[in-house]
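Example 4.3 (complexes with small molecules)
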Amino acid sequence: MKKIWITGAAGHVGSALVRLLDCSRYEILATDIKEIDITDVQTVHTCCQQNHPDVIINCAGLTNLQTCEKYPDRAYQVNALGARNLAQEAQAIGAKLIQISTDDVFGKIQSIPYNEFDALSPRSVYGKSKAAGEQLVKDLIHRYIIVRSSWVYGFGKDFVSDVLDAVKNGGVLHVASNQISTPTSAKELAKVIIGFIKSDAYGTYHAVCKGSCSRYEYAKAILELTGHTDHLHVEPFVDESGTRPRYSVLDNLMLRISGMEEPKDWKDALEEYLKEQNL
Ligand SMILES: NC(=O)c1ccc[n+]([C@@H]2O[C@H](COP(=O)([O-])OP(=O)(O)OC[C@H]3O[C@@H](n4cnc5c(N)ncnc54)[C@H](OP(=O)(O)O)[C@@H]3O)[C@@H](O)[C@H]2O)c1
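Answer. The structure with NAP bound is encoded below.
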């Protein structure tokens, strides 16, 4: 039975994986920062030596953009050195590493989707630290898969829960109309990641739902699908802050040309998630 170690297992992506993975096929070691801090080299080493996972899925990360801007050292420590620690130890025991990354590694002003062969251009500390993590993984382990996704939601505090919380509180929600990307359900992303456990395909892959929208359109879709259009006024605004990429739609080129299954349309995935959660 294959042994899978999931780091950051309490987060959106990690918990979706824990739910979806078939326990009868895989032995699952799910840890979050309380059990194993991936920045602690010795703890990561001991965990690998004691458990000998076949696959490590790194879902741990400092993912809050504002926190990363405020604490850049910590952002690099978790998102770059944490990934390095796992890559080194995975290489030493012959495990495969699946590193989860983000559309925030792109930040150029453009309006066509980024594919896996486009040069990175991160703007924020978060994006730069994730790009650094990707590079360290590439440098340190042969058997790696980097899976980049965008606007992930599901099981926890995220944009979907923020909008629905705003419904409860009433009033007006101001949402950027000039941020364009693709909402992707953690479940759809987890399905792609699980595919990589089984396959012998390596490299960098984009895995986002089909289509794209502005954050404003995303908020409106959440309200429409939950029947709350009359309960909250969503006001579009132009975000001039510059930390978030304005356009960061990812093209799943590598999944497509490899003949691998792509995530479903973003609105269908959102509808499915909201129904499953009775929202
Ligand atoms: N959410 C998105 O929109 C999105 C989009 C694209 C890519 N991604 C990537 O997908 C991965 C997972 O994202 P997510 O949305 O599931 O994030 P998340 O919900 O914030 O989960 C990340 C988990 O990692 C934990 N963690 C933080 N520092 C750690 C450390 N040093 N050691 C071990 N665990 C640590 C966090 O604990 P605390 O909560 O206590 O900090 C949290 O439980 C990240 O690499 C992220 O960059 C996310």
